[in-house]
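ok trying this again, last paste got cut off
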Amino acid sequence: MFPLRTDDIKTSQLSNGLTVMGLEYHKLPLAHITLMIKRGSERDPQGKEGLADLTAEMVTLGTEGRDSQQLALAMERLGARYSASSGWNASFLEFFGLSEDFSSLMDLMGDMLLRPTFPQKELQQSQQRRISLLIQQRDQAEVIADEIIVQRLLDNTPYAHPTYGTIPSLGGMAADDPSSFYHRYYSPGEAVLLVIGDLTPAKIREEAERLFGGWKAKEKVDRQPPAPTRPSGMKIIAVNRPDLTQSQIRVGLLGITRNDERYLPFQVMNYILGGGGFSSRLMQRIRAEKGYTYGIHSSFQAGRIPGPFIISTFTPTATTIPLLEETVKVMEKFVAEGAQTKELEEAKNFLRGSYPLKLETPGQMAGELLRLKLYDIPFDYLSSYPETVGNVTLDEVNTLAAAYLLPKDLIFVVVGRVEDFLETLRSWGKVELIEYSEMIKDCSPANTSKHASTT
């Protein structure tokens, strides 16, 4: 589906404010339908983290005319798939089936979106499933490390919690919370319907008008979420798990927003540092030369606010401190000496060459188009991507490295057998010590049964 011209995307708006986007795809007789609500977990009320994601699921679990089993059977008869989820900034209802069943698929989507009943039995079961999954994840050191680093980087913002919620927040949901979230935030003025498939724009518009033309608009609820405060001074969080023989390590700082004009140079910089697999500096130094780990990489998330920029790795307990020291040295060298011309060209060549592979299927294209729409980025971003990446300069990359790779302001999270390296960490600065046993108190049978029965 690449390259894509801006004119290929047919966009219109219904009288109630619903944006309708259509993209013809005639290689296969398929229809990929996505409804995006521009409200996600950033709108979770305090103490009810995970509500946006729970609400998205509940929309699919019962309507005025069908229960969850009937909805699932209707989709199965069509040989179609559907899913619902919520991210930081948006919630999604996604359908995928044959283009000849487009009208039937739209009927099912319309039924779910416009007439959900939020059945209490389904709500209880969903809460129990989610709590059980979180209990299982409490044993996974990598999950704990990921959650802590994001929470500390995005502290005092609506993004500081996992989109899937926590054990206390899920257990504390009231019976009417998903319905309240739905009625407040699910509105045509906040929604985008994207259809990619073996269909004409006229057919897409006709079905959208038929199903959603009567969807009543609501008062717009809009606010700019507060931006996180950039870390100042080194912060060290150590989670003590005496049973582990390896340490899970996260090194974090804040990145940029998605609509920042430096987004693509930032991608290039990240590729050179740790996003480029075996060609990255972190992999070359930490794995290939030092042998401290099997894998280390850097990645960043960009949304309406500056998102986390995180280096993730693991290592045997004995090499925890050497790995941290070498990671900082790699960053310091990047800032001091800058990127090399060869590294820059390798990064640009990879990003340009791999980009079309990320847009091969209707689902991949839908995801990219909706992200652009969500963050108000023109669609010509797609067609201009190779040229824009090709124009990234060494000066741009090195300026970004100097501005963002600040070792003195890093946040370190280490989950492992802390007694083996605690004193060294304390010589670097103040250490916040967390006992793993305290983190799993909510996972006791008495507490989880209490949580699961609140509705």
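PB: full thing came through this time. The longest strand covers residues 246-254.
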